[in-house]
Automatic annotation (TrEMBL), chain A:
Keywords: Calcium, Cell membrane, Cell projection, Cytoplasm, Differentiation, Lipoprotein, Membrane, Metal-binding, Myristate, Nucleus, Protein kinase inhibitor. Coiled coil: none annotated. It comes from Prolemur simus (Greater bamboo lemur). This is Calcineurin B homologous protein 3. Residues 114-149 form the EF-hand domain.
TrEMBL record, chain B:
The gene is GPAT3. It is a multi-pass membrane protein. Pathway: Phospholipid metabolism; CDP-diacylglycerol biosynthesis; CDP-diacylglycerol from sn-glycerol 3-phosphate: step 1/3; Glycerolipid metabolism; triacylglycerol biosynthesis; Lipid metabolism. InterPro entries: LPCAT1-like, Plipid/glycerol_acylTrfase. Belongs to the 1-acyl-sn-glycerol-3-phosphate acyltransferase family. Signal peptide: none annotated. PANTHER family: GLYCEROL-3-PHOSPHATE ACYLTRANSFERASE 3 (PTHR23063:SF10), PHOSPHOLIPID ACYLTRANSFERASE (PTHR23063). One of its GO terms (biological process) is triglyceride biosynthetic process. Keywords: Acyltransferase, Endoplasmic reticulum, Lipid biosynthesis, Lipid metabolism, Membrane, Phospholipid biosynthesis, Phospholipid metabolism, Transferase, Transmembrane, Transmembrane helix. It comes from Prolemur simus. The lineage of its organism: Eukaryota, Metazoa, Chordata, Craniata, Vertebrata. SUPFAM superfamilies: Glycerol-3-phosphate (1)-acyltransferase. This is Glycerol-3-phosphate acyltransferase 3.
Length: 218, 437
């Protein structure tokens, strides 16, 4: 990782970055770099506050969770828990790579790996205390964030929705439970079980425009 | 002594040239055709440069139009994106949709990109636009160096002289005309002074303006609204007709010009404190247009400069005054020079200097048919209708966002809209979908 702004550093930055995400062209990386600079105010790193300048993002109900995901050490592959204070361009690309479209021409193993990575990203978003389980509290927290804008819904309603969904998850993962059995929380394996056979490919990717198509139209 | 002599000798033929070739024709409204020739040469040079860049550059770096966007955005509304109907149950996967939308916004948000200059498809031989083009050949670099010399050593002094002359003439002329008693002669002279000085100032930017649909030019007693890119917009419009300007009183050179101009022609200048009182502003403007003999008012409803690729929210204040609205669309050609004033990056003076060191300012002005507020239409809807008309004519995209976002944050009420919509989908209006196990 680099912390300087000179041209040679920039090239090194980009080359290093390309090695971590080979499915994206150097042209697209340059554009992302420019966007990174715009967000960071020409600094080499981005902090949480820099995301305040994106009006489109302000409308998103889970905005704080998304921004947090960028600094989550688990997503950045820097540790099992905790948040980084700031991220550089390579980290930015690492997070972006979770939203790469799944290339169906890759081998089945690769596709499975890709899918797992995306689901793990989502799991981390729910599991805010990094203990490896999505507890009822954490689930409720997400539902509340999504629904809190509606004045007709009281907190109780949001809770019941979360509770209901949690029960459903428990039944999928553990099967029939004894009356006094406590369901600790959704582990990552349980999480994967819930998603088995369900197509997430179309929902969780951001596709880059193909530059050649633009060239032909011009 | 000798130095002054020499300076005088150098300066006088220079001034004679300026007078003969530029000032006189401006006063008479005659076009000698010098700018056309200049532009033709310029266009040929830039075309040659583009071909050389295409030949020499990598295949991928040919086209890089940031206005098209780098990612394919999912424009489907929330309902479709979540693939559900009203009253569906909450699903874990709903978070997918929002996180994708969030990432799209982070990678490319359509609002903040309007507050920085438009990126060019091909380099136009100006250093300032050379962000992603690399060294190609010696010939190209030589042409670029020549360009720098021409722009900074020949064109810039000429343009600064012209601007100086134009502004002084304006101040002196309007003050003199202001001494005359109120009559039609005075109005005609005032128009002549305004038009001449504007033409001189436009030449100070090597401006070439094409006016379309002149039959719809704003009439007396109406309000002219246009999209805003730069302080030059005022100059562009006043070269083809006289308007009453509306604005805040400034200090410095601008203040001097304002005070002089108002002597010969009733412009509407507000003190800073008066601007805050919307009723006062509306009242004064209403009084102005009630007098059918007064010149049309010129207003920029966006309230701030946008980069000429889109039109942002029109503030409804101008549309509550009543009267006929004459929309005007202004589109600059970015190939010859960037007209956008990025007020957070450059001061007004450095912006004007940057314009004077570009190749030229080339723009199209379309006058649109007049519009009035229809029955049952409120000011906001009317404003949007006018905005659409301008956007369509100028080939600009339309955005509902407020230009004020350049400096301010999104209002909380706006943010909560999205959450309200989602929660309505899940829960309906207060009723619950109980999950049974």
């Amino acid at each position: 990782s680099s912390n300087c702004g000179s041209a040679s550093c920039k090239v090194g930055d980009l080359e290093q970055a390309t090695s971590t995400s080979p499915l994206i062209s150097s042209e697209q990386i340059e554009q992302l770099h420019r966007r990174f600079k715009q967000l960071s105010g020409d600094q080499p790193t981005i902090r949480k506050e820099n995301f305040n300048n994106v009006p489109d993002l302000e409308l998103n109900p889970i905005r704080s969770k998304i921004v947090r995901a960028f600094f989550d050490n688990r997503n950045l592959r820097k540790g099992p828990s905790g948040l980084a204070d700031e991220i550089n361009f390579e980290d930015f690309l690492t997070i972006m790579s979770y939203f790469r479209p799944i290339d169906t021409t890759m081998g089945e193993e690769q596709v499975e790996l890709s899918r797992k990575e995306k689901l793990r990203f989502l799991f981390h978003m729910y599991d805010s205390d990094s203990d490896g389980r999505i507890t009822l509290e954490e689930y409720r927290n997400v539902v509340e964030e999504l629904l809190s804008g509606n004045p007709h819904i009281e907190k109780e309603s949001a809770r019941s929705i979360a509770d209901g969904a949690m029960m459903e998850a428990a039944s999928v993962c553990v099967g029939q439970m004894e009356p006094d059995q406590v369901y600790e929380g959704i582990t990552f394996e349980d999480f994967l079980k819930i998603w088995q056979g369900i197509d997430i490919e179309t929902k969780m990717h951001v596709r880059f425009l193909n530059m050649e198509t633009i060239a032909l139209c011009h | 002594m000798e130095g002054a002599d020499l300076a005088g000798k150098l300066l006088s033929p220079w001034l004679v040239l300026v007078l003969g070739l530029i000032l006189l024709p401006s006063a008479l409204g005659v076009n000698l055709g010098v700018s056309e020739i200049y532009l033709k040469v310029l266009v040929k040079t830039l075309q040659w440069a583009t071909i050389r860049i295409e030949k020499g550059g990598r295949k991928e770096s040919i086209l890089n139009s940031a206005s098209v966007g780098i990612i394919e955005r999912d424009e489907s509304p929330m309902e479709k994106g979540l693939s559900g109907l009203r009253g569906r149950d909450f699903e874990l996967s709903d978070v997918f949709y929002f996180s994708k939308k969030g990432l799209e916004a982070i990678v490319e948000d359509e609002v903040t990109q309007r507050f920085s200059s438009e990126e060019l498809v091909s380099w136009n031989l100006l250093t300032r636009t050379n962000i992603n083009f690399h060294y190609i050949s010696l010939r190209l670099t030589t042409v670029w160096v020549l360009g720098v010399l021409v722009r900074y050593c020949i064109l810039l002094p000429l343009r600064v002289t012209l601007a100086f002359i134009g502004i002084s003439l304006l101040v002196v002329g309007t003050t003199l005309v202001g001494q005359l008693p109120d009559s039609s002669l005075r109005n005609r002279l005032s128009e002549l002074v305004h038009l001449t000085c504007c033409r001189i100032c436009v030449r100070a930017f090597s401006g070439t303006i094409h006016y379309h649909n002149k039959q719809y030019r704003p009439q007396k007693g109406g309000i002219c609204v246009a999209n805003h890119t730069s302080p030059i917009d005022v100059l562009i419009l006043t070269t083809d007709g006289c308007y009453t300007m509306v604005g805040q009183v400034h200090g410095g050179l601008l203040g001097i010009m304002q005070r002089a101009m108002v002597k010969s022609c009733p412009h509407v200048w507000f003190e800073r404190s008066e601007m805050k009182d919307r009723h006062l502003v509306t009242k004064r403007l209403k009084e102005h247009i009630a007098d059918k003999k007064k010149l049309p008012i010129l207003i920029f409803p966006e309230g701030t400069c946008i980069n000429n690729t889109s039109v942002m929210m029109f503030k409804k204040g101008s549309f509550e005054i009543g009267g006929t609205i004459h929309p005007v669309a202004i589109k600059y050609n970015p190939q010859f020079g960037d007209a956008f004033w990025n007020s957070s990056k450059y001061s007004m003076v450095s912006h004007l200097l940057r314009m004077m060191t570009s190749w030229a300012i080339v723009c199209d002005v379309w006058y649109l048919p007049p519009m009035t507020r229809e029955e049952g239409e409120d000011a906001v809807q009317f404003a949007n209708r006018v905005k659409s008309a301008i956007a369509i004519q100028g080939g600009l995209t339309e955005l509902p966002w407020d230009g004020g976002l350049k400096r301010a944050k999104v209002k909380d009420t706006f943010k909560e809209e999205q959450q309200k919509n989602y929660s309505k989908m899940i829960v309906g209006n207060g009723s619950l979908n109980a999950k049974s196990d």
